[in-house]
Amino acid sequence: MKLLKYATHLIALLTLSLFALSPCAAESTLTSVVRKAQTKVVKVFGAGGLRQLEAHQTGILISPTGHVLTALSYVLDTDDLAVVLDDGRSFKPEYLGSDPVRELAVLKLPLEDESLPYFDLHNHTTAQVGDRILALSNLYGIATGDEPVSVLQGTLTAIAPLDARRGAFTTAYQGNVYVVDAYANNPGAAGGALVDWQGHLLGLLGKEVKSRVTGTWLNYALPTASFAESVNGLIEGHSIDWEPPSQLPERSLTGELLGLRLVPDVLPFTPPYIDAVRRGSPAERASLRADDLVVFAAGRQISSCRAFLEALTYLDSREELELSVLREGELVEVTLQAEGQNAEE
Fold first, then answer.
1. CA–CA separation, 14 and 285 (whole Å)
2. What angle do CA 169, 221, 101 make, to 5 degrees?
3. Domain for residue 245, yes or no?
4. Which keywords does UniProt give here (predicted)?
5. Which of 47, 62, 180, 252 makes an SS bond possible with 78, Cβ 3.0 to 4.6 Å?
6. Do 135 and 271 reside in the same domain of the chain?
7. CB neighbours of 192 closer than 8 A, spacing ≥ 6?
8. Residues 177 and 309 in one domain
């Protein structure tokens, strides 16, 4: 009798195990997870379309009232910026602020009375090497209306510091990233979501970069833990709101007076990297170097070459300039002043 009872229990357990491992059941569950995650991903359309610069990227909803996290790029620099939800509705967002080091931006949709599906940054999940992942994005701009964003399946292959470059310049962020084996970082994919097979947010897909070691394109995402605090600060209004003075000084400070030159300003959001430092100049004496990334100037957050040059125009040529630059992952703070003989000429 005991043997029969044991056999009955064993058969029941095997039946449940087979059902749990049923490909149809697993596929149904994964499909449900994917579809739910897709509703939290948005399509972003803006500037671009020339010289092989795509005019689209991806974003994720991070609040029920329409806060959107996306990549900081030239795509956002237009008055005709549009964010399209999963259901096809299109909105003109407000630009709230950015994190120039991680190259992230926060937008706000004109929605208050709705409760949108979103990824909760306060309750993020971490991943381990070998975990299966899903990358959701509007790669190649395939979705334009109520079409769902694309989904790629893969595995987390490494967690390592980002040692990469964009063109000739090293990326500002050099913290740990999730490296995946899926071809996730395609044109338009920046700002997309990396989630686990339960649909929990693991990170944000980064902009297209190449490994400085191998020269190959990297497929990676910034872990949620690396940007959650910064992004929540932007949502809460902790970004630096800078009000320009009522009038310009008689003679403004310039990069020439300081002895530094930024990289060519070819795009509205060209990152403010220092391209060259003149010998014997105030910039050289302050130990500034080519490839330094300007992140703060005179207490103002700097996210582009134009923002830096604008900040200088409101400073008198005789004033000291407090500058914060990012160098090889470290924040370096310097104070420099234009030479007296140059400032008075």
1. 75
2. 45
3. no
4. Hydrolase, Protease, Signal
5. 47
6. no
7. 41, 58, 60, 135, 136, 137, 138, 139, 149, 184, 204, 205
8. no
The average pLDDT across 219-234 equals 93
Using the predicted structure, report yes or no on whether residue 259 has a pLDDT greater than 90. yes
**Residue by residue, what is the 3-state secondary structure of 110-145?**
CCCCCCCCCCCHHHCCCCCCCCEEEEEECHHHCCCC
Radius of gyration from C-alpha coordinates of the chain: 24
100 and 218 co-located in one domain: yes
Which residue's entry shows tokens 């931006």? 105
| Residue 152 sits in the same domain as residue 114 | yes
The pair of structure tokens assigned to 84 is 């399209």
Out of 171, 201, 235, a domain closes at: 235
Asked whether residue 249 is domain-assigned, the answer is no
Res 276: pLDDT: 95
Structural domain containing residue 6 = 2-36
Q: Which residue type occupies 336?
A: L
Q: How far is the C-alpha of 7 from the C-alpha of 9, rounded, in Å? A: 5
Report if residue 240 sits inside a domain. Answer: no
Between CA 121 and CA 224 the distance in angstroms is 7
Question: Based on the structure, what is the number of domains in the chain?
Answer: 3
Summarize pLDDT for 135-162 with one digit per residue, the tens. 999 999 999 999 999 999 999 999 999 9
